[in-house]
């Protein structure tokens, strides 16, 4: 009898440990990876490609440097309640293959965000990111 109870106790303990490690390994929202390239479309003309993206909470947006001039991501318009903090203006990506990533977390309420590259925005290097609720 005592032996049987001891066995149950071990089984419960193992079940508990298993549950804890499983939830630690699998984040609740896996999310998608959305890539926006920073490209040169003509001599000294730079663009975000695609210029418009729609993402969902939990997604990761990766801006990928694919040109020769330094670029960054600076938000210029955002929905009410957005608290981007340091993500308001990203650092410069100076060499090909460099990337800047943002996870669409609680800082980004649903809505439309306008952003640009600080030096090239006035010349058309602008993008729009819409954060929309998850598909049903
Ligand atoms: Cu730029």
Notable traits:
136 residues; single chain; 1 helix; alpha/beta; four-stranded mixed beta sheet; Immunoglobulin-like; binds copper (II) ion
Give the topology, please.
Layout: H1 2-25, E1 33-42, E2 45-49, E3 52-55, E4 60-65, E5 74-77, E6 99-103, E7 111-116, E8 126-131
Parallel strand pairs: 1-4, 3-8
Antiparallel strand pairs: 1-2, 4-6, 5-7, 7-8
Oligomer: single chain
Could you state the CATH homologous superfamily?
Cupredoxins -  blue copper proteins
How much helical structure, as a percent, in the residues?
Answer: 10-25%
CATH architecture: Sandwich
CATH class: Mainly Beta
Rg is: 22 Å
**Average of per-residue pLDDT values:** 85
User: Which molecules other than protein and nucleic acid are bound?
Assistant: copper (II) ion
| Strand coverage percent | 25-35%
Distance between the termini: 51 Å
Report the uncertain regions.
4-27
Q: How many strands in all?
A: 8
Domain count: the total is 1
The helix tally amounts to: 1
Q: Any idea of the CATH topology?
A: Immunoglobulin-like
Main beta-sheet annotation: 4 strands, mixed
